[in-house]
């Protein structure tokens, strides 16, 4: 309904004209990722991983629209892919990674600490490496790498500097991630999170009433977009 028009969309070129290339790309990637998750054999966790990824993506888009940033679809894609490495690890190393997710689900430890201890790499580090090898833009790959600590500095030996756009995208992912967890979209129960005092909310200069509206809109949009992807 959001993209309703007087005549039907009958060709791919019509669809691109109506939706725009960025929106089409977001839909295609989301549909593909959902297909991978639905076909996975580790159904104990894949549903939660998909719900969380979609909720963060929708939250990122809503944040950008509230801030009137012209990067809503880029943010949707970055947020959608922020936990991609969790799926890779689950499918490639199930015996090693399922216990990590189970312990994190029960709230005993933080996933990143468990990943570092048992695997020697965190999901955001691995995710950034994978996306870089797939030739995703640096704004996305760097934001994925930083999304749990957007203000952290990269090692001096890497000879590159995180740009303001990359760091801003990391803050969008971080805040959208907190929003999703606050509603229980993921493998864990809803987390009590004070979004108003979240560092990324401050960094993005989002007012408390704007955060409240985004949080309410997220629940409504999740119900709508779950149906869009056959969830």
Secondary structure topology:
Blueprint (H helix, E strand, L loop, with lengths): L11 H8 L1 H19 L3 H25 L4 H9 L3 H9 L1 H12 L5 H8 L4 H11 L4 H9 L17 H19 L16 H5 L4 H21 L3
Helix pairs in contact: 1-2, 2-3, 2-4, 3-4, 3-10, 3-12, 4-9, 5-6, 5-8, 6-7, 8-9, 9-10
User: How many distinct helices?
Assistant: 12
Strand content: under 5%
Let me know the largest β-sheet.
Answer: none
Helicity, in percent? Answer: 55-70%
Structural class: mainly alpha
Uncertain residue segments: 1-19
The count of strands amounts to 0
Mean pLDDT: 79
Kindly, what is the distance between the CA atoms of the first and last residues, rounded to a whole number of angstroms?
19 Å
What is the H/E order? HHHHHHHHHHHH
Cα shape: globular
Cα gyration radius (Å): 17 Å
Would you mind describing this structure in some detail?
The two termini are 19 Å apart. The chain has helices at 12-19, 21-39, 43-67, 72-80, 84-92, 94-105, 111-118, 123-133, 138-146, 164-182, 199-203, 208-228. It contains twelve helices and no strands. Helices cover 67% and strands 0% of the residues. It is an all-alpha fold and 231 residues long. The model is unreliable at 1-19 (pLDDT under 50). It is globular, with a radius of gyration of 17 Å. Helix 5 (84-92) packs across helix 6 (94-105), helix 8 (123-133) packs antiparallel against helix 9 and helix 9 (138-146) packs across helix 10 (164-182).
